[in-house]
Write a structure and sequence with these properties.
Eukaryotic RPB6 RNA polymerase subunit; mainly alpha; globular; 53 residues
Length: 53
């Protein structure tokens, strides 16, 4: 379970990656990097993780 702050951080990082040309990990007709990142998070395929102390 991620906090809303962790979700925002991961979405922001993935959106930046997509806007800089990273290939999307899901098939989508969307062109907005944020929408694609949200879809990736919904399907749990984002290659980022939260490491807590």
């Amino acid at each position: 379970m991620m906090t809303r702050f962790e979700k925002a951080r991961i979405l922001g990082a993935r959106t930046l990656q997509l806007s800089l040309g990273a290939p999307p990990l899901v098939k989508s007709d969307e062109v907005d990097p944020l929408k694609i990142a949200e879809k990736e998070m919904e399907l749990d395929v984002i290659p980022l993780a939260v490491k807590r102390n």
